[in-house]
TrEMBL record:
SUPFAM superfamilies: ATPase domain of HSP90 chaperone/DNA topoisomerase II/histidine kinase, CBS-domain pair, CheY-like, Homodimeric domain of signal transducing histidine kinase, PYP-like sensor domain (PAS domain). The lineage of its organism: Bacteria, Bacillati, Cyanobacteriota, Cyanophyceae, Nostocales. Residues 321-373, 489-541, 619-671, 748-800, 877-929, 999-1051 form the PAC domain. Residues 213-240 form a coiled coil. SMART domains: CBS, HATPase_c, HisKA, PAC, PAS, REC. It catalyses: ATP + protein L-histidine = ADP + protein N-phospho-L-histidine. This is histidine kinase.
Amino acid sequence: MQLNDQLIALPNLHQVIDRYPLTISPDSQVLDALILMNQEQNNDLEIVNASESLPGSKGKQKASSYVLVVEERQLLGILTLRDVLKLTVLGMNLSKTRIAEVMTQQLITLEESAFQDISTVLSILQHHRIDHLPIVDDGEKLVGIVTESSLLQGLNVVKIVGILDSIQQYLQESQKPTTTPAKCQYANQQTKEVYCENDYFLHKLVVEQVAKEIKINEELHQTIEELKIVEEEIRQQNERLVIVYEIAELERRRYQNLFEFTPYGYLVTDKLGIIQEANHAASTLLSVHQKYLVGKPITVFIADEARHTLISDLADFQQLPEWEVCIQPRQGTPFPAGVRVAAMYDPQGQQSGWSWLLSNISERKQAKESLSRATQELEERVVKRTKELVVVNQTLQQEIKERHQTEAALRKSEDIFRQFAENIEAYIWICSQDCSNIFYINQAYEKIWGRSCQSLRENPQSWIEAIHPEDLDHMMLELEEQAQKGGNASVEHRIIRPDGSIRWLLSRRFPIKNEQGQIQYFGGIGEDITERKQTEAALRKSEEIFRQFGENIQAQIIWIKSYKNGETVYVNPAYEKIWGRSCQSLWENPQSWTESIHPEDRDRILAETRRNLQNGELSTLEYRLVQSDGAIRWIFARCFPILNEQGQIQYFGGIAEDITERQLAEAALKKSEEKFRHFTENTDTVIWMASKDGKETLYINPAYEKIWGRSCQSLRENPQSWMEGIHPEDRDYILGKIEERHQKGEGASLEYRVVQPNGAIRWIWSRCFPIKNEQGELDYYGSITEDITERKLAEVFRRESEARLTLALEAANMGIWDWNLTTNNCIWSDHIGPLYGLPKGSLCPSSLQGFLNLVHPEDTEPFTQALNRAIEEKIEFGIEYRAVWPDDSLHWLGTRGKVYYDEQGQPIRIIGTTRDISDRKEKEQKIYEQAALLDIATDAIFVRDFQTEILFWNQGAERMYGWTKHEAVGRNLQDIFCPNTSIQHEATALKTVVKLGTWQGELRKQTKSGQEIIVESRWTLMFDADGQPKSILIVDTDITEKKQLEEQFLRTQRLESIGTLAGGIAHDLNNILTPISVAAQLLKGRFAKDPARHPHLLTIIENNAVRGAALVKQVLSFARGLKGERTIVQIKHLIAEIIQIAKHTFSKSIEFNTQISEDLWTVSGDTTQLHQVLMNLVINARDAMPAGGLLTISAENMFIDEAYSRLNFESKVGHYIVITVKDTGMGMSPEILDRIFDPFFTTKEIGTGTGLGLSTVLGIIKSHNGFVTVSSQVNKGSTFKIFLPSVESPQLPSLEQLEIESGQGELILIVDDEPQICDVTKIILENNNYQTLTASNGIEAIALYAQHKQQISVVLMDMMMPEMDGATAIRTMQKMNPDVQVIACSGLGTIEVLPESAETKAQAVLLKPYTANDLLRNLSQVIRNRE
């Protein structure tokens, strides 16, 4: 028996033709066709008109998705369910619309004689993207129809899969070892076509595989039944469309009411302007009753001068804006009116009339005319005044110019002299010949004389007043003599400054002559020689004092010796007293003084003395000497060189002092000081002693380091450093106070703050006092200081506590009272009086009756009873009552108090609080009223506490869940909604509402009858009066039916996608089956006796069988979809599935590229819905590339910061996963891009797209709390970006944690026509150490760049702007500066934002929306590259 050409025989095309299609006449209504499509039809009628029938085969046909429009067996058109759905959305009346008006007339048909094979029909359906292909004969008469579903059914996918699985299993078994003798026989017909085996085991194996094939076939039949159920659901959905139409009719009536009551005149006319409808406002404006307006041309109400213009404008109508015409009402005067006209179209797109909107603008015109007149008058006045100012300005400018030229030469000369005179320390003056005028005096005069230059100019002789009286006569005489001689005068004299100080001056005067040699002025120069005079006087005085001092001092020896020969130059008489030797002996023998040095000290002293003399150094020595009577004295000696004017050693001098008593006293003092030091170094009190001038620290104990936080050594080195630690706010006051007390010779006791180096602040108490010597004179100062920080903090805490209590009472509108029951005396705090309408600080009434007079009469008895019960039962006193204010207004008060008892149990006092609770009472009343309103709501509204107990249950909840209020309140939520409710979702919602205050999401709940429903639940956290969470308000909306419709819609979309991919699936199956068929033929024929080739061919068959089974499994899985709750989804797996399906079904001319981040985060979502999103996007990408191209799918993690969220209002700060689907297809224009997400908008041919794909994508992504962005360029492709919030994302980094590079003060020019983008970008840059300039268009940017081009480092340029775009602005700037650094910004989402021109160059491209990191990274890179 010969083997067939194909392993699987495809069905005959005549077998898949439906020869009994559903037909209807063109005059029938659309509603009749819809009813006909949704009824089961008996197949006992051949192709007929609505009134004709021919006998045919029997049987029933399921509800159809189409109806053919036929007249006398001539095919006129087709009407599908998709067409009916579009008509319903457009609001057309299906019962009044004829099929001939809305049917699809341009049909794709196929002649029956042109049939070739099933692939021909599939290619036609795929090429034209249609679901129905009518079959006609040679006379164009209708024969039948072929649908995509009938073709798929004819392919018998079930059988294909069964055969593939059978072959695969057989091959696996045939490779196992067997012991059955080889015996070749034909087991069955199918096995003979594939293999020739002689083994009995093969027959048994085939029987088992056939049984498995039958089982698989049954499963696939079950799948087909499920698809039929889907078709039934679609039929039910069509029935709902009828209900939708009725609802739309109600909405139309509602808008009719709005039409009638709008304040603007509204008219509807036909194309000729004949009024068809008019509302009440139009009737009022035109002064004609509504019913008389109908049928009249609208032009009769237009003034004659505007009528012709109006008619011509309507004839050329494209899209008229609002314009003004003069309206002539039937009665009354004409008035100006604002008119807007819009064309109206019928369902076929033909214009059917006009709609008119009229408004009276008389008042607006009058105001506009008044403003115009006022503006014109103001402009005329401005022009006149401007001309006058121009003339005055020209005259003034000429005068200024002449004056400037004259002054310039003089100023140059004066500047040279002035710079010299102003920078010299001597004073310079110039006066007239008679000294009556001072022409010049420099600032040094004020410094030396202590008088102002102005006083000398006003009184040129005032300098004489400052001359010392003893020098005045001599000086004037000297000046007079020199003046007579006509020569220079120089004199030394004293002056007395205004502060009483005396200064010595050397003054010189000289005449200034003119060109003729005549004296014209007198000039002078003087310098201060006070210091020189003082030095000379001090030197003379010093010599005299030294001699008297040396001769009269007895305690110290003063001596001077020659450096050259060592002779004694001077020694005072104290030498004889201390050394016990005569001065004469020292004159005669200068070394005799060494003989008295103690033998133990002599060698050391002589050696040090010789060394110091040789080196010319200062030496200090202590040693002992032995007097002639044997007494030992301690000597302290200092030896030093005396230099001449050339700095050379001329003499050696020395001072020797008897320190015997001091040594003894120091020994005793050391012992006393040791005791004192032990005490002071172990106390926390600072003990401090300083010299009387405060420049030396005599003693400071270690407590100073603890309190001041500074080392004692720092105080010794700088005795004033303790002042640096005083708090800046206390320093001036404390130092002034200490100085004031010291001047009086008194001590001071002060409290102030000190700031330790670590910033800690300490409060101290310091007692400083003078310490006097035996003569009562000030010797030094002492101080004792203690740290009182803890005491001060306690005082501050007490004051703050009292202040907080006062503020709390004021904020809470509360007062405190204390009632002494023994004395019947009650004390009110200041805040109680206003609670009773009395002034703040009012006293409590003296008696209980007086107090009760402030209480509402109806509340006095309950108040008294509550008070007595609290006293008798020893419980807390509490009551709410009304207070009557003096103006008779009522206010609710709440009082609480506690009763205190003595040892005998008798009440002695009550302390309590009173607060105003009027607001709470009003809110309770409102809540009571609102509770009644809640019962009207259709939503289920209830309140639960944190123990899941129900506190409130409205009637909407009773209707939705079936539980009455009596049954629900007080019960546990789990008991009401069944324990099987998703506890995990409830727990997640509870955590969110406690953290954020609100939560919204979908939950599955169960009603009392056991029915499971889906609700959209909104939770809100409720708080008590103290602001603490107390309960949760829950509002549930039943969305069960909505979710079912969404599920049906998505299933329909999936089936549509499968239909779209059917051609690719068939092509791929044939590619899979071909190697199987060829390999089987080779095994049977050519290689039957070549066992070595069998494993390779069997492997080919096995691999292709597995590949085919996987393809069918993917298609079936996508067709069924998954129904369930949202789970954690890994996007990379979904992308892999979509890529695999696309590679099998798309044209081979389309290449695929995937870029998926390795550490991609996960999202929470519905797997089936996200699968649908990706499928819709890749199908759209395929359709956009009919000639092939590159389809790229990428996924990455992204953190959206605050800057990005400001640029994209749909985004929020957080972590997202970004899925990008990019194609290189035909792209879209901006007009199409604005409408792609509109329902039913499509650019595809009729019958090839519903226009719902992208609107479905947008709806699904928004339901997942994400958003979609799209960018496209014509002929360059489109890019869709899906943003989905990630789950289990890392902690949000703060702005400081982001790795951003700060600037170095560079100036950045920001150019963008969006103010928000300018503001956000400016904030980012200035917060990162950049300077900014902003411009809103290209012209403004060029002006700013021309002004600041030397300072501007980078220009941030938006490419799409009005007036002048970015590319033109960049070219202009590059002409001004070829090295200008530009970053181009674009919202198109593609880097090809610059025109392809060498004249336009940018260093970087930044795509919107961008993050702060993107901006700063690009900016830093451009700046670094430039450097």
